[in-house]
C-alpha cells in the first residue's frame, strides 16, 4: 500500500513527457520556419539581406536553426538530470514499487548519457559539417547522423519508459488503495 501521495511524482512524469514532446517539436519547427522564411518572398527581408541568394539565405537560416537546437537540447539535457533525480527520489519516497523506481533510474541513466556524451558530440560534429560541401567529411557526417539517430532513439525510449513508469505508479496506487 502506498502511504505517501504520488501526485507530485505523477506531475513530474507528466511534465517531463510533455517537455520532451515540446522539444521534439522545437527541433522540427526550427528548420521548417527557416524554409518558410526563404519561401516567403518578404520584401523587407529581401532588402535586409541584400544580394544574398535564396540558397545563401537558406544556409544562414538553417545554421541559425541548428544553433538554436544545439542550445535548447544542450540546456534540456542538463535540466533533465536533476529532474530525473528528483523523480527517482519521489518514486523511492512514495514507495510506489521497485518496478517504477527501476524504470525511472533507467531514465536517469539515459539522460545522463545524452547530456554528457551524445549531445556534446553531436553539437561538435554538427558545427564541423555546417557549411562543408555535402561530399566533404563523409566520416564526420556518418558519425553525426549515428549520434543524431542515437539521441532520437534513446529519447523516444526515455519517453516510453516515462509513460510506463506513470502507469506502474498508477497501478501501484490503485492496487494499494483497493487493499485499504
Can you describe what's shown?
This protein has 180 residues and is mainly alpha-helical. The chain has one domain. It has helices at 7-40, 43-49, 54-94, 98-129, 138-179. Helix 1 packs antiparallel against helix 3. It is elongated, with a radius of gyration of 21 Å.
Overall tally of structural domains: 1
What count of helical segments does DSSP give?
Answer: 5
Strand content: under 5%
The rounded distance between the terminal residues' Cα atoms is 7 Å
Instruction: Give the number of DSSP strands.
Output: 0
Strand and helix layout:
Layout lengths: L6 H34 L2 H7 L4 H41 L3 H32 L8 H42 L1
Helix pairs in contact: 1-3, 1-5, 3-4, 4-5
Characteristic terms for this protein:
mainly alpha; 180 residues
Structure at a glance:
By secondary structure, the chain is mainly α. The protein has helices at 7-40, 43-49, 54-94, 98-129, 138-179.
Amino acid at each position: 500500500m502506498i502511504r505517501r501521495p504520488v501526485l507530485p511524482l505523477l506531475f513530474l512524469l507528466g511534465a517531463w513527457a510533455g517537455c520532451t514532446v515540446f522539444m521534439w517539436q522545437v527541433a522540427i519547427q526550427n528548420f521548417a520556419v527557416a524554409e518558410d522564411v526563404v519561401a516567403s518572398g518578404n520584401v523587407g527581408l529581401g532588402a535586409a539581406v541584400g544580394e544574398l541568394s535564396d540558397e545563401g539565405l537558406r544556409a544562414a537560416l538553417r545554421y541559425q536553426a541548428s544553433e538554436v537546437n544545439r542550445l535548447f537540447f544542450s540546456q534540456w539535457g542538463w535540466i533533465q538530470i536533476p529532474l530525473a533525480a528528483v523523480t527517482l527520489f519521489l518514486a523511492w519516497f512514495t514507495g510506489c514499487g521497485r518496478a517504477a523506481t527501476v524504470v525511472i533510474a533507467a531514465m536517469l541513466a539515459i539522460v545522463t548519457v545524452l547530456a554528457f556524451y551524445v549531445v556534446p558530440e553531436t553539437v561538435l560534429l554538427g558545427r564541423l559539417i555546417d557549411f562543408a560541401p555535402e561530399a566533404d567529411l563523409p566520416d564526420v557526417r556518418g558519425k553525426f547522423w549515428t549520434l543524431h539517430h542515437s539521441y532520437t532513439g534513446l529519447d523516444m525510449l526515455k519517453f516510453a519508459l516515462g509513460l510506463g513508469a506513470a502507469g506502474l505508479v498508477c497501478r501501484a496506487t490503485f492496487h494499494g488503495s483497493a487493499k485499504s
